[in-house]
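User: Hey, my collaborator sent me this sequence without any context and asked if I could get a structure. I don't really work with proteins. Can you help?
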Amino acid sequence: MSESEVFIHSTATVHPKAQLEAGVRIGPYSYIGEKVKIRKNTKIEANVFINGETEIGEACLFSPFTSIGTEPQDITYHEEDTVVKIGDKNIFREFITVNRGTVKGGRQSIIGDNNYFMAYSHIAHDCIVGSETIFINGATLGGHVIVDDCATVGAFSGVHQFCRIGKHAFIGGFSVITQDVVPFCRVAGSRPSLFYGLNIVGLRRKGFSKERIGDLKEMFKIIFYSDLNMAQSIDRIKESFAPGEDRDEIIHFIQSSKRGIIKKASE
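Assistant: No problem. I've predicted the 3D structure and written it out in structure-token form, which is a compact way to encode the shape of the chain:
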């Protein structure tokens, strides 16, 4: 079989109206529903269930027993047409679940590119996940959560509905997140979750310079370790740092937060 051909195992069930591009491979006992669209070179391994109006990008991998595009786990859902959209080069390991959106939440759950979802992770209805994130085993998002690019959600951590996780943030394992997590920081713990400083290891791995990390440290001192309130902290940062990508990301994130941020620092 050429790499440009679609391969469907004899035991798989694929609806004749499902759209499969060149190089897609469907493994044994997998199910692909009528409204599913899968772009080229995506691999569906054995015992994978993909249903609903689900769009999947190129070169993704779905490991056994993943369940994608199923109905939202929301008691207000009444079989409306809602969507899951998944980008390119995502890896979904065993027993991952991704639910469709709800009408009240915008109708769609969205996942970007180059994400790694480890076993038993759950992406609930109306979530928006950026690109280059990592979900460690058992990481769970409630509905309407936003996870920005390059964030990491630790093992067996739960994120409350409507929370937002900022860019390059790191959530430690077994955490309970009930407020927003500021970009570039580390948080961990359960009721309360605590702020543990800058995500230095993650930022270095992403190529952040010493100068850039140094500026972020100074901004975090103002936000988390001064006696200033949040409005005063933002004013101080605006006075002390020229407009730039990182400064503006932090300020906009805090000002747009609806649930408040995790601010209590560890001792």
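In plain terms: Residues 203-256 form a domain with the Udp N-acetylglucosamine O-acyltransferase; Domain 2 fold (CATH 1.20.1180.10). You can pass these tokens on to your collaborator as they are.
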